[in-house]
Amino acid sequence: MKVVSNTTPIISLASIGRLSLLPELFNTIYIPQAVYNEIKHKKSYGYQEIDKPYFEVLAIQGNAYLGFLLNELDQGEAEAIFLAKEMAADILLIDERMGYKIAQSQKLYCIGTLTVLAIAKQKLLISQVKPLLDEMIQKGRWYSENLARQFLKEIDE
Questions:
Q1: Up-side HSE of residue 154: CA atoms within 13 Å toward CB?
Q2: 98-131 per-position pLDDT tens digit
Q3: Is 120 inside a domain boundary?
Q4: Rounded to the nearest 10 degrees, what angle do helices 130-138 and 145-154 cross at?
Q5: Does residue 140 fall inside a structural domain?
Q6: pTM of the entire structure?
Q7: What are phi and psi of 5, to 5 degrees?
Q8: Domain-located, residue 148
């Protein structure tokens, strides 16, 4: 399975010490150079973990349309979408709403950090999502109360 990730899911999972869920669920995680650079830009969540062997940094091959995406997205999001499209990725991990919508319009299958946690719960890698969601919020990840409540209801928590 080919899985490409944007920056936010990596930082979010690293902030709660659960970045290891990605290789447990998906094996190798491909990231574009811009995502690697964003994480390495400051010594924060994910800074050391991004160099683990289950992350593979790839350069995007063509960038003729990158400028169009950069009107709406940051470099990491744009390159993650490009890389996922170039690789014919099975999954793109992306949380930002605009990037998610653009990626879906390009027929990419997208999931966010909360869905990663829900899958981990289904596979019995974690017992509950709510405490991890609460911890991510405590550490600076923003989710609207309505979204968080609706998501937890959907997964019976």
A1: 11
A2: 999 999 998 999 999 999 999 999 999 999 999 9
A3: yes
A4: 160
A5: no
A6: 0.92
A7: -125, 145
A8: no
Identity of residue 35:
V
Pairwise CA distance, residues 66 & 72, whole Å: 11
The 10s digit of each residue's pLDDT in 23-32 is 999 999 999 9
Question: What stretches of the chain show up as alpha helix (H) in DSSP?
Answer: 7-15, 21-26, 33-40, 66-70, 75-87, 97-105, 113-122, 130-138, 145-154
What DSSP state is assigned to residue 128? Answer: -
10 Å Cβ neighbour count for 138?
10
The CATH number of whichever domain residue 20 belongs to comes to: 3.40.50.1010
pLDDT higher than threshold 70 for residue 151: yes
Domain limits for position 26:
3-127
Which residues make Cβ contacts (< 8 Å) with residue 101, sequence separation at least 6? Answer: none
- The count of domains in the chain is 1
22 vs 112: CA distance, rounded Å: 12
Residue 94 lies in a domain: yes
- Cβ neighbors of 54 (< 8 A, separation 6 or more) are 22, 23, 27, 28, 29
pLDDT of residue 84: 95
